[in-house]
Automatic annotation (TrEMBL):
Catalytic activity from the UniProt record: alpha-D-glucose = beta-D-glucose
Classification lineage: Bacteria, Bacillati, Bacillota, Bacilli, Bacillales
Keyword Isomerase part of the UniProt annotation: yes
Protein known as: Aldose 1-epimerase
Pathway: Carbohydrate metabolism; hexose metabolism
Keywords, comma-separated and alphabetical: Carbohydrate metabolism, Isomerase
NCBIfam families: PRK11055.1
Source species: Caldibacillus thermoamylovorans
Known EC number: 5.1.3.3
Any Gene Ontology CC annotation: cytoplasm
Length: 351
């Protein structure tokens, strides 16, 4: 097992490094201390050919220039916060409005654009990186000094283990995720429309025209939101369901798990044979089929940005939970520890 390091750019006069983790089976995961961005994952297909299965850029400047959140740790609070404000214990907190009238993905300079401290991790059957960041009281409008630790481990079982721990010195809100865009075709040879996804979720959140949860929780039965027996992403793109049309023809919805730590997400791509199994301790996954991905730029394979190039599986708490008391709470109090764990297992199915 091996870790290599190289310079990746400079941000705010701080050096940014790219760390490449390699296990004993040839799988590699590259990540950077800028936003804990995962830039590349080389995973084998059924013929043993290693290719990149996530979207990314070749240098840090592109990550800053193009607000895609490719591969980044997003927070303090992932997703949208209605009207860019919230109340805790009778006190109102005002956040920057970064999408219309709302706040999204932690603000103008959320966790995804911060330079983190980094140190290598070497274990018997895994190598990894430990990233730490101290988010000061008032940063992007959020209360509390928050100490965050993110770890990425690459194991010899071809697993990427993502954890996040955080503590605060005063009551605040926290809901972190990783925003990787997966494409199991390898080297972005095709879009993700024919990827088949299985979710252990029987409910999803209804969204309004600003893509905020309305508070209504909808049963997936008899809709293209029912992934319990497996379904191709293209079904939602061609669907006339108002919720698919609302988000730009596809998916950008939180799905609520019926169970955890038991293959609750399974993604496969039949041509390459690649599979991805995701298990987490989080209550939901935001499924985003990159319906809004567009712009005059190319990703690291030289492919022009366009819709449906990647599939995000953002394991997290329910979006905008601070405004919906019937959602699981995302409030973190002094003396408590926030703990997130998501395991991505890469495999293959034979033809």
């Amino acid at each position: 097992m091996n870790i290599t390091t190289k310079e990746f750019g400079i941000v705010d006069e701080e050096k940014v490094y790219l760390y490449t983790l390699e296990n004993n089976r040839g799988m590699k995961l590259s990540c950077t201390n800028f936003g804990c961005v995962v830039t590349e994952i080389l995973a084998p297909d059924r013929n043993g050919i290693f290719e990149n299965v996530v979207l990314g850029f070749n240098n840090v400047d592109q990550y800053i220039q193009h607000k895609t959140y490719f591969g980044a740790v997003v927070g303090r609070v992932a997703g949208r916060i209605k009207d860019a404000e919230f109340e805790l214990d009778g006190k109102q907190y005002i956040l920057p409005k970064t999408e219309g009238n709302n706040h999204i993905h932690g603000g103008v300079k959320g966790l995804h654009e911060r330079v983190w401290l980094a140190e290598p991790i070497e274990q018997k059957n895994a190598v990894g990186m430990k990233f730490t960041y101290f988010s000061k009281n008032g940063e992007e409008g959020y209360p509390g000094n928050v100490e965050l630790t993110v770890t990425y481990l690459l194991t010899n079982d071809n697993q990427w283990i993502f954890t996040c721990h955080a503590t605060t010195d005063q009551k605040t809100i926290l809901n972190v995720t990783n925003h990787s865009y997966f494409n199991l075709t390898g080297q972005v040879k095709d879009d993700i429309l024919n990827h088949e996804l299985t979710l252990k979720c029987d409910r999803f959140l209804e969204l309004d025209k600003e893509l905020l949860p309305t508070g209504n929780i909808i049963n997936v039965e008899n809709t293209v939101f029912d992934f319990r027996q497996g379904r191709k992403i293209i079904d939602g793109v061609h669907s006339n369901h108002p919720q698919n049309i609302l988000v730009g023809n596809g998916y950008d919805h939180p799905f609520i798990f019926t169970e955890n730590h038991n293959r609750e997400i399974f993604l496969k791509e039949s041509v390459s044979g690649r599979t991805l199994t995701v298990e987490t301790n989080q209550p939901c996954v935001v499924l985003y089929s990159s319906n809004q991905l567009q712009g005059d730029f190319t990703i690291q394979e030289g492919v022009q940005a366009r819709k449906y190039l990647g599939l995000c599986l953002e394991t997290q708490g329910l979006p905008d939970a601070i405004h919906h008391p019937h959602f699981p709470s995302i409030v973190l109090d002094k003396g408590e520890t926030y703990e997130l764990k998501t395991v991505y297992s890469f495999g293959v199915e034979q033809a």
